[in-house]
Write a structure and sequence with these properties.
There is one protein chain. With 191 residues, the protein is an alpha+beta fold. Helix content is 61%, strand content 17%. The protein is built from four helices and six strands; from the N terminus they run ααααββββββ. The strands form two sheets. It has a three-stranded antiparallel β-sheet. A hairpin with a 2-residue loop joins strand 4 and strand 5 (180-183). The longest helix has 75 residues, at 34-108. It is elongated and about 135 Å long.
Length: 191
């Protein structure tokens, strides 16, 4: 400290000394107190903490998104497998439908050999049992309402006894697995 400052410290504080002290403060270079330096050090620490929290939040968000994408992928894969299984089953059953048609024709023909007829009936019963076990359903009976999504109308007939858009005759049965149509029923529609 300078001599002048020491003398001022020893004097009692009056208005004069207070104004002199203010002048000295203005003349002296302003130095920040160490208390102000501490917040500067804390600010970077808070900034680093905030950066770490943001990085953690971003990583957590990415993790949640990845988990959701994987869950969606797993569900989609399961649905595709089920659909593929149904498609393959429908395609395989469709390959056997000509056998079904031939067995129906054999049953429709009259024969004098009862053993032959009984054998064809047993084969047809077993065939229907296997198709039912696979989930294949027959449809297309006379008297049902006509559905263009399931039936293929090849003829039209005017018949007052039947209502409008009613199947009058079935030429070939239709088959489906669940909602998937394997083969449309070929029918004649009335009115």
């Amino acid at each position: 400290m300078s001599k002048k400052n020491k003398e001022k410290k020893e004097k009692p504080v009056t208005e004069e000394t207070a104004s002199e002290a203010e002048e000295l403060r203005e003349e002296a270079p302003v130095e920040e107190a160490p208390a102000e330096e501490a917040p500067k050090e804390e600010a970077p620490k808070e900034s680093e903490l905030e950066k770490a929290q943001k990085a953690l939040a971003q990583e957590h968000d990415q993790y949640l998104r990845l988990a959701a994408e994987y869950d969606n992928f797993r569900k989609r894969s399961r649905k595709e497998k089920e659909a593929l299984y149904t498609d393959v089953k429908a395609e395989t059953a469709g390959k056997f439908l000509p056998v079904y048609d031939n067995l129906e024709r054999a049953l429709a023909n009259e024969t004098s050999d009862e053993a032959y007829k009984k054998g064809v009936e047993l084969i047809m019963a077993e065939f229907r049992k296997i198709m039912t076990g696979l989930g294949v359903e027959e449809f297309g009976e006379a008297g049902e309402a006509f559905d263009p999504n399931a039936h293929n109308a090849v003829m039209h007939v005017e018949n007052e006894e039947l209502g409008e858009n009613v199947i009058a005759q079935v030429f070939q049965k239709g088959f489906r697995i669940g909602d998937k149509v394997i083969r449309h029923a070929v029918v004649q529609v009335a009115n």
